[in-house]
Amino acid sequence: MEVVGTSSSVGLRLGQVLFSSASLLFMCFNDDDDFYAYTAFCYLVTVMGLVTPWSVTLALIEAYSIIVQRLPLQATVLSVIVSGDFVLSFLSLGGACSTASVTVILIGAGEKHCDRYKLSATMALLSSFLSFASTFFNFRLLPSLFSH
Questions:
Q1: What does the CA dihedral 80, 86, 90, 96 come to, rounded to 10 degrees?
Q2: For residues 117 and 123, what is the distance between their CA atoms, to the nearest angstrom?
Q3: What does the record say about its membrane topology (predicted)?
Q4: DSSP SS3 for 104
Q5: What is the pTM of this model?
């Protein structure tokens, strides 16, 4: 099952773009002044700021690959894509979990404006799952490219 340069790969990338952008927007357009006081929130914004352009770039490359009837993949290029997806998926998972943890603590402390933080953590978690899926499917292609 080849995933790079197919409609399913573009769908995974667009889902990553949608969820990472939503996470970033929910976090950044919050009315709290205490946003920058929490390292976990700043970390999530930084990671989602990396995931979004990475996913947009790869979505455009894969859409172009579909239009021109599949560009030949090189093993080193796919290795970089798999490595980038792998690292960013763990970073976004860490950001989502840390943001969720801080949000739970804030809710326990009586903070009332934590809905956007919860939504941001949820969107980051969904983006992380899609990134893990991209990593897994592209990782399965590596042995076939190195064997040629």
A1: 90
A2: 10
A3: Multi-pass membrane protein
A4: helix
A5: 0.90
